[in-house]
């Protein structure tokens, strides 16, 4: 069982919403690695059968046979995994089966360097030790990372996630006048994340828990909101979220427009 991930390692979007970037669990990752191992050994066996056929035809001697064996090992256990991972952008047959993808620790896409480091160390910890070293490292690391991941700065991310809600919340009825005069400062990232998560899951909570959590979140958000209207706590949270999103969107649009004007002036000069 892998160690829990600290909350500070979560990836947040621009609206302080936690992105569902969960690592693949230890057992699922082991299952995916087993599939990739079977594929690697199957390719190596194909090389072995090919060598037997070439020996019967007299096309291989002792010197070329040694070169052939080294080539078969390198292609089957290093070049094949690295090539597949780079071509499929962090995926492989095993990762497709378990719904995972190799990404950098910051959530970005991996490159050839990351895949090569993982593949090179994978020869030792996956194939030469039949996965025992990878199992030990994965069981002790927070994100089920094997040694190759720890050195390359990568981990296996879950990509089968629930679909995001497409329709954003709208301003509740009766809040338009308040929205015109309200002063809503930027909320702390963690508080904004908790409010977003609460609004997304409020319908699944019991009425008592829903009201209690809404009151707690309003109490935390109160220093950043003025004035506080006499409305239910959940209504206020929705209004605050909509207002902040609208103002941030407007600010981004103004920044883009300003950048375009500056670019146009430079071109004119």
UniProtKB/TrEMBL annotation:
<keyword id="KW-0472">Membrane</keyword>
<feature type="domain" description="RDD">
    <location>
        <begin position="28"/>
        <end position="153"/>
    </location>
</feature>
<dbReference type="Pfam" id="PF06271">
    <property type="entry name" value="RDD"/>
</dbReference>
<dbReference type="GO" id="GO:0016020">
    <property type="term" value="C:membrane"/>
</dbReference>
<feature type="transmembrane region" description="Helical">
    <location>
        <begin position="37"/>
        <end position="55"/>
    </location>
</feature>
<keyword id="KW-0812">Transmembrane</keyword>
<feature type="transmembrane region" description="Helical">
    <location>
        <begin position="120"/>
        <end position="140"/>
    </location>
</feature>
<keyword id="KW-1133">Transmembrane helix</keyword>
<dbReference type="InterPro" id="IPR010432">
    <property type="entry name" value="RDD"/>
</dbReference>
<protein>
    <submittedName>
        <fullName>RDD family protein</fullName>
    </submittedName>
</protein>
């Amino acid at each position: 069982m892998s160690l829990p991930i600290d909350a500070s390692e979560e990836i947040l979007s621009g609206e302080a919403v936690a992105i569902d970037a969960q690592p693949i669990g230890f057992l699922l990752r082991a299952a995916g690695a087993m599939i990739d191992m079977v594929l690697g050994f199957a390719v190596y066996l194909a090389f072995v059968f090919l060598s037997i056929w070439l020996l019967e035809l007299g096309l291989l001697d002792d010197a070329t046979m040694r070169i052939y064996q080294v080539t078969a090992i390198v292609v089957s256990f290093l070049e094949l995994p690295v090539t597949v991972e780079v071509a499929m952008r962090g995926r492989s047959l095993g990762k497709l089966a378990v719904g995972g993808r190799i990404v950098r620790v910051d959530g970005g896409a991996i490159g050839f360097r990351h895949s090569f480091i993982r593949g090179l160390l994978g020869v030792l910890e996956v194939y030469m030790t039949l996965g025992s070293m990878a199992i030990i490292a994965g069981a002790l690391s927070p994100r089920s990372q094997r040694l190759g991941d720890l050195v390359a700065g990568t981990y296996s991310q879950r990509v089968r996630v629930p679909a995001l809600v497409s329709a954003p919340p709208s301003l509740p009825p009766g809040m338009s006048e308040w929205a015109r005069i309200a002063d809503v400062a930027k909320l702390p990232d963690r508080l904004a994340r908790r409010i977003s998560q609460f609004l997304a899951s409020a319908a699944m909570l019991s009425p008592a828990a829903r009201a209690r959590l809404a009151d707690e979140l309003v109490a935390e958000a109160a220093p950043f909101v003025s004035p506080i209207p006499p409305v239910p706590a959940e209504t206020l949270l929705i209004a605050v979220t909509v207002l902040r999103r609208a103002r941030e969107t407007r600010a981004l649009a103004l920044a883009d427009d300003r950048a375009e004007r500056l670019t146009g002036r430079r071109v004119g000069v």
